[in-house]
Amino acid sequence: MSLMRHIGPRLVLASERTSASGTSVIAARIEVDFGSLPIWEKKVTVLNPLVPTDAIVFAAVSRIIGTGHADDDELDAFTVKTGNTTGGDFSMVIQSLQGPVFGKYMVDYAVVGTA
What we know:
Layout: E1 11-18, E2 23-33, E3 41-47, E4 56-61, E5 78-83, E6 89-96, E7 104-114
Antiparallel strand pairs: 1-2, 2-7, 3-6, 4-7, 5-6
């Protein structure tokens, strides 16, 4: 298992596992800052040197409360789209389903690819 830490809307924690067949799985959590003004969506590029070019990425907004948020923020609904894995990074779009949001939200993601 390897742990990595970055600053800002980047990788906070990652754990990598590789099977005997050479398939790797990375699980991680990032904190995404939507800013101080309410917006409907946020686009980010997640930098993670463990992400292979052929990876499939699954992501969802975490039920873990982001920095500076109240407990009721965990009820906000989001959709998360990922793509464009280029070996070391991928893009992510987080969209609010209930209305504009602001502040920081935690996003969990898993990456599956060939090691």
